[in-house]
Amino acid sequence: MASPKVAVVGAGIIGLSTALCITEICPSCSVTVLSDQFSPNTTSDVAAGMLIPHTYPDTPIHRQKQWFKETFTYLFAISSSAEASEAGIHLVSGWQVFKSTPKEELPFWSDIVLGFRPMSEAELQKFPQHRFGHAFTTLKCDCPPYLLWLEKRLKAAGTQMYTRKVADLWELHSEYDIVVNCTGMGAHQLVGDKQLSPVRGQVLKVHAPWVKHFIRDGDGLTYIYPGIHSVTLGGTREEGSWSLSPDAGTTRDIFDRCCSLEPSLQGAQDIEVKVGLRPSRQCVRVQREVLSQGGVKLPVVHNYGHGAGGFSVHRGTANEAAHLVGECISDLQGSSLRAKL
Amino acid sequence: MRVAIIGAGVIGLSSALCIHEQFQGLLPSLELEIYAESFTPHTTSDGAAGLWQPYLSDRGNLQETLWNKETFDYLLGHLHSPAAKEMGLFLISGYNLFTEPVPDPSWKNIVLGFRNLTPKELELFPGYSYGWFNTALMLEGRNYLPWLTNRLTQRGVKFFHKKVESFQEVSGDGVDVVLNCSGMRSGDLQPDPELQPDRGQIIKVLAPWVKHFIITHSLKSRIYSSPYIIPGSEFTVLGGINQHGNWSEENSAKDHKSIWDSCCQLLPALQKAKIVGEWSGLRPARPSVRLERESTRLGNLRAEVIHNYGHGGFGITIHWGCAMAAARLFGTILQEKQQLATPPGPRL
């Protein structure tokens, strides 16, 4: 197989970063990205893109840590390069504050972010309702810039991108040798994964350029994440809700919760409300399988179900998925050799 | 009681406000008048980035360390007030970078979360092998000065756009106390060979992805003569010029290139930043701040002068501590005058 044809379905952060990893690992592949939505209309565009991992209950911690570390290392290098502003990658420092001391002393990612340490008494004065906190510096991926930058890198690598709604993976079997499923919430319909469910998140994007730090309350329901041109205020976690319409009462509630953490936000301007559905799963599905129908086989690599943690682990899972694509190619090459004998 | 303040930079305006706040209630006849050649946005304070950070060494002036602390604590107390945004006041964290280990500064316990940089953090800054991280405050002159002006105007303080050539010009005619907050121009009012300009130049850029201040240090050279990057609320300041004895307020192409090249080396992404302005200013440098009383006499007229100038590159950092000290000196003058005003006792 001279030039395996790979279709990546999905153009959010997972689809684009997986496609990019495939072009890096398998330069001879012809990669095409197919998606019904591209930036700025993906779920990834709603998210703040903070590198603060979500813990998946059913994925081993060492694997999550590896994914996070790879992602952090990759973005860290971009953040200090000349491309940082174009790629939308920047460092941001801040605080995660708790009203009561958390059960676990240190999160698994504390040695990967920068300068992680408990907050001092003086620092906690800023948060009178909170008794404990962590201070650290991490990275933020601003979207659309990061997605647009990935698209640019893909185009430079010869990747084609098409707007197309894929209703069934089998649609692709005649044009492509391997299909990579990065459809996020779309996988619920596309592959009938009932373990995947939406967790609705509403956010406000506001103009408050004097806010230079992130603030995250406890388990992350309320947060303030300063980006390049706006500050993302959040949020909600509504399990099982499929609604993409902003709710006015929720907007008021988010704004109040954030102002309580950062009073200066009362002066914020240009409030834009957005909604995204976190494609949530007990464990991220990074897995290959071979679909079979009437004697025809279709190798598929899945990379979806990142829920609240897509940005934090995107590069790590993209690399893993790209290696699985490599395995699919080896298998195809093996079987095509056998077919010739 | 009329008080004339010369200078409308951060020192003049804050001293005036501090005195009015403390004494107007005790002395309803108190009238303050501010005379200045330049008002916001044309003062030295307007050009400064506005970062609260003292020099690395206290130069033996422990008083100044106290005034710095008073200022920080005062500002921190205002951080959550509704006025903070209007004042141009917000928290900011960042990096101080060195090419060798240095002792901790006098202000390490004044700022928040002061710590050394980790090896991984230092990877961000090739060429620097040691550094600090801390959280401090920004107080942007272009917002703070108008805020101070509004507070003063509300209190009935009068402003006069005038270059004052001598203390006598404003004293006499019922003006009992003159506050000399004339910064770099103090030498025009009274020669002071210790006051010299430390000329700075800055480039203003749009770089909203930069959320931290980054200040590099070259221990062999003057402070702020090594590149620094300070993100504000509307633009980011790039700097790294400190020329002792240079009185020029013209932007220099050579300095522009030096700032641009050295800051882009520090943060390569700055190459893409749009330049929106450039400015040169004179830090009113002195071995120590001159904050003291002086009695002047012209014929029969006596006037008390309170000097408050020579704050170099830390005016914003120290301003409130100095304003309070100036107010204390004013209080002493008031007490003395009241003693003089007390009717003499019966002679026996």
Automatic annotation (TrEMBL), chain A:
<keyword id="KW-0963">Cytoplasm</keyword>
<keyword id="KW-0732">Signal</keyword>
<dbReference type="InterPro" id="IPR006076">
    <property type="entry name" value="FAD-dep_OxRdtase"/>
</dbReference>
<dbReference type="Pfam" id="PF01266">
    <property type="entry name" value="DAO"/>
</dbReference>
<keyword id="KW-0285">Flavoprotein</keyword>
<feature type="binding site">
    <location>
        <position position="166"/>
    </location>
    <ligand>
        <name>FAD</name>
    </ligand>
</feature>
<dbReference type="GO" id="GO:0019478">
    <property type="term" value="P:D-amino acid catabolic process"/>
</dbReference>
<dbReference type="GO" id="GO:0005782">
    <property type="term" value="C:peroxisomal matrix"/>
</dbReference>
<feature type="signal peptide">
    <location>
        <begin position="1"/>
        <end position="19"/>
    </location>
</feature>
<feature type="binding site">
    <location>
        <position position="183"/>
    </location>
    <ligand>
        <name>FAD</name>
    </ligand>
</feature>
<feature type="binding site">
    <location>
        <position position="223"/>
    </location>
    <ligand>
        <name>D-dopa</name>
    </ligand>
</feature>
<dbReference type="GO" id="GO:0008445">
    <property type="term" value="F:D-aspartate oxidase activity"/>
</dbReference>
<dbReference type="InterPro" id="IPR006181">
    <property type="entry name" value="D-amino_acid_oxidase_CS"/>
</dbReference>
<dbReference type="GO" id="GO:0005829">
    <property type="term" value="C:cytosol"/>
</dbReference>
<comment type="function">
    <text>Selectively catalyzes the oxidative deamination of acidic amino acids. Suppresses the level of D-aspartate in the brain, an amino acid that can act as an agonist for glutamate receptors. Protects the organism from the toxicity of D-amino acids. May also function in the intestine.</text>
</comment>
<comment type="similarity">
    <text>Belongs to the DAMOX/DASOX family.</text>
</comment>
<feature type="domain" description="FAD dependent oxidoreductase">
    <location>
        <begin position="5"/>
        <end position="324"/>
    </location>
</feature>
<keyword id="KW-0274">FAD</keyword>
<protein>
    <recommendedName>
        <fullName>D-aspartate oxidase</fullName>
        <ecNumber>1.4.3.1</ecNumber>
    </recommendedName>
</protein>
<dbReference type="GO" id="GO:0071949">
    <property type="term" value="F:FAD binding"/>
</dbReference>
<dbReference type="InterPro" id="IPR023209">
    <property type="entry name" value="DAO"/>
</dbReference>
<feature type="binding site">
    <location>
        <begin position="43"/>
        <end position="44"/>
    </location>
    <ligand>
        <name>FAD</name>
    </ligand>
</feature>
TrEMBL record, chain B:
<feature type="binding site">
    <location>
        <position position="283"/>
    </location>
    <ligand>
        <name>D-serine</name>
    </ligand>
</feature>
<dbReference type="GO" id="GO:0071949">
    <property type="term" value="F:FAD binding"/>
</dbReference>
<keyword id="KW-0963">Cytoplasm</keyword>
<dbReference type="Pfam" id="PF01266">
    <property type="entry name" value="DAO"/>
</dbReference>
<comment type="similarity">
    <text>Belongs to the DAMOX/DASOX family.</text>
</comment>
<dbReference type="GO" id="GO:0005576">
    <property type="term" value="C:extracellular region"/>
</dbReference>
<keyword id="KW-0274">FAD</keyword>
<keyword id="KW-0964">Secreted</keyword>
<dbReference type="GO" id="GO:0005829">
    <property type="term" value="C:cytosol"/>
</dbReference>
<protein>
    <recommendedName>
        <fullName>D-amino-acid oxidase</fullName>
        <ecNumber>1.4.3.3</ecNumber>
    </recommendedName>
</protein>
<keyword id="KW-0597">Phosphoprotein</keyword>
<feature type="binding site">
    <location>
        <begin position="49"/>
        <end position="51"/>
    </location>
    <ligand>
        <name>FAD</name>
    </ligand>
</feature>
<dbReference type="GO" id="GO:0036088">
    <property type="term" value="P:D-serine catabolic process"/>
</dbReference>
<dbReference type="InterPro" id="IPR006181">
    <property type="entry name" value="D-amino_acid_oxidase_CS"/>
</dbReference>
<feature type="binding site">
    <location>
        <position position="217"/>
    </location>
    <ligand>
        <name>D-dopa</name>
    </ligand>
</feature>
<feature type="domain" description="FAD dependent oxidoreductase">
    <location>
        <begin position="2"/>
        <end position="329"/>
    </location>
</feature>
<feature type="binding site">
    <location>
        <position position="164"/>
    </location>
    <ligand>
        <name>FAD</name>
    </ligand>
</feature>
<keyword id="KW-0770">Synapse</keyword>
<keyword id="KW-0560">Oxidoreductase</keyword>
<dbReference type="GO" id="GO:0006562">
    <property type="term" value="P:L-proline catabolic process"/>
</dbReference>
<dbReference type="GO" id="GO:0005782">
    <property type="term" value="C:peroxisomal matrix"/>
</dbReference>
<dbReference type="GO" id="GO:0055130">
    <property type="term" value="P:D-alanine catabolic process"/>
</dbReference>
